[in-house]
Amino acid sequence: MKSLLDIVVDYSIKNRNDVFKAYMDGRGWSDSTINEWGLGIFPESGILSLIAMIKDNKLDAFDLEKKYICKKIGFKYKSFLFGRIIFPIYDPHGRIVAISGRVLDDSKPKYFNTAFAKGKFLFGLNLTKKHIVEKRRALVYEGFADVISSFQHGIKNTTCCMGTALTEDHYILLSRYAEEIVLFFDNDKAGMEALKRFNEKKLDETKKDTKIYRCFLKEEKDVDEFLQKKGPEEFDKYVNDCIADDEMQEKLKNT
């Protein structure tokens, strides 16, 4: 039986439009990538068709408010998801736990998530965990786009946090699959702040044998840009060089 969130994702996929296609083309994501990750768009009109889909599946449309998807005000529905690109968020076993919507302009908030425990889940593990197990290494990025672009480029042992630094629960979860965790921080103010936030947490790495490494991009603003400019082979080399550079690791650890 489908959950309410499953139906919302189906609805967003059904409503892919020219605006959605333009965004995907700008990202350089192929149709197979778009379909594999279940991406869609939440249209600014037509909410009644979503309600009909929910009722057809014997679910209660009032749960849209409980999940922070829509709110009925008078005779109209309002939602932070209207006009946003939809990214489904799954647990490692492929069960949907939340939805994240990204704006297509510079308005805030950039992302709006339905309610879930951010400190317990990591994006994309339902698709990437087997590759993490194969490589015994997890590459942890800052954003959804980095994970999806990396996956399309053939670097599939990846994931990302969602609005938090790596937590103890994240660390324990990844330790089931990996012997090494490589944290990537973007080359901008937000990336440096994320690095500082993580270092302040001081995870107890003695609880597991999994080692944590830090990788700060020097030139490109993020992993997506690195892969677009230099490709996966150069990226692999950069990752290995970061891990092998003891001096840089110590410096980043004490930032």
Give the total of beta strands.
10
Indicate the CATH architecture of the largest domain: 3-Layer(aba) Sandwich
Q: How many domains comprise the coordinates?
A: 2
Average of per-residue pLDDT values: 89
Largest sheet: 4 strands, antiparallel
Uncertain runs are none
User: What's the gyration radius in Å?
Assistant: 19 Å
Shape: elongated
How many helices? The count is: 11
Q: What order do the strands of the largest sheet run in, or round the barrel if closed?
A: 1-4-5-6
Give the termini separation.
Answer: 48 Å
Please give the CATH class of the largest domain: Alpha Beta
**Fold-level CATH name of the largest domain:** Dna Topoisomerase Vi A Subunit, Chain: A, domain 2
Helix content: 40-55%
Helix/strand/pairing category: alpha/beta
Topology as a string of helices (H) and strands (E): HHHEHHEEEEEHEHEHEHEHH
Estimated share of beta-strand residues:
15-25%
Please provide a written account of the structure.
With 255 residues, this protein is an alpha/beta fold. It has two domains: 4-113, DNA primase DNAg catalytic core, N-terminal domain (Alpha-Beta Complex); 125-253, 3-Layer(aba) Sandwich (Dna Topoisomerase Vi A Subunit, Chain: A, domain 2), CATH 3.40.1360.10. It has eleven helices and ten strands. The protein has helices at 4-14, 18-27, 31-36, 47-56, 63-66, 125-135, 144-152, 168-175, 189-201, 223-244, 246-253, and strands spanning 40-41, 71-73, 76-78, 85-90, 96-102, 111-113, 137-141, 158-160, 180-185, 211-216. A four-stranded antiparallel beta sheet has the order 1-4-5-6, covered by helices on one side. A four-stranded parallel beta sheet has the order 8-7-9-10, sandwiched between helices. Strands 2-3 form a two-stranded antiparallel sheet. It is elongated. The model has no long low-confidence stretch (mean pLDDT 89).
